[in-house]
Every structure is written in structure tokens, then in C-alpha cells.
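Entry 14. Ran structure prediction on the chain below.
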Amino acid sequence: MLRILIADDHPIVRHGLRQLIAKTTDMVVVDEASDGWEVISKVGASDCDVVLLDISMPGLNGLDIIRQLKKESPRLPILILSMHSEEQYAVRAFRAGASGYLTKQSAPDELLAAIRKVSIGGKYVSSSLAEKLASDLAIGTEQSPHKTLSNREYQVMLMIAAGKTVAEIAEELSLSIQTISTYRSRILQKMQMKNNVELANYAVRNQLLE
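Output, C-alpha cells:
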């Protein structure tokens, strides 16, 4: 019986996932977590086989959660289930140590198949993402500007591009306004852009926004 820990900040999502898993004969939900730090503490106490993790978690960013969990439990499979498209976070999630990436638009059967695959040490990549990765490798293009950003800078860049203010981002990420302003300055410098409008236009051109 596969022991699953569900980590998502939305109760209705956790409830739906619990109901889905309850219909299987080879899985059971052993615990739930609603914020980043809770994921870290509960994984250590639950002895789970797979972590089903949302990339956008309060308290601690999903990519940071992955890295922390892989330090403490290197062999623990982490399957990302996110509202964000694969273009936004999948590659970064895999680099951090995730075993698979699915969007919340995926079919229930695909999610269950992904859980089973990562539980035995496999990697789960959707056909669309696999095609994109293969295409990128074949083209051998130079690194895109947004790929030079750190994970936190990338997260802030997407939020700025989506039209959120520095104050709104600071509140959502539980960081100071000064810290977010510093991130914004670094982002503009690294991407060689002058303002938020240029960031937004870039994100739209590269299909980084929903």
C-alpha cells in the first residue's frame, strides 16, 4: 500500500485528492499539509512513500521544499501537482529534485499513473513536456534570459509580470517590501530590462503566464 502525503494550501483540493486516492486499492493518504514548513515537519513524521506537492505553497516556496526534502530524504519521490503550466516551473522542479510534474488540469487516471510510476523510482513527464524538452535540446538555443534567474527571482518575476504590486508580492510571500524591491532590481538587471512593462511583455511572448 503506497502511503501518500498531500501538500496543498487549498482544503478543497486536498479533499478532492483524498477522495480520488480512497477509490484505489493500492494507495492511502497518511497525512496532509497546508504550508511549506508543515510539509517538512510532516514528511519526517509520516513515513510516506510519495509526496504530492503543490508548487505554490505559503511559508516556503515549493522549489525550496523540494530541495529541503531531498536533503533529508534523498530517495523520497516528490510529484508536483500544480496550477502552473509546465513551461513555468517543470524544468526548475526537476532540477530541484522532483520526480514528476503534472498540472491540475490533468485527468485523474494520469495522476494515479504518475504516482505509481514515481513510487518505483521512475520519472513522470507528460508527452507535451517531453516533446518541448526534446525540441529545446535539438535546437540548442542559447539560454533564455529568465533561465538566468534564481528560483525566487523567477517567482517574483512572474508575479510582477502578472500585474501584482511590490506590496502584494511581499504580503503573499511573507517577505518585506524592501526585499521584493531588491529582487525586482536584480531581475531587471539580469534580464537587461528597464521596467515592469518590459517584463510583462517578455512573459507573454515566452508563454510564461497562464
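The longest strand covers residues 27-33. Will compare against last week's run tomorrow.
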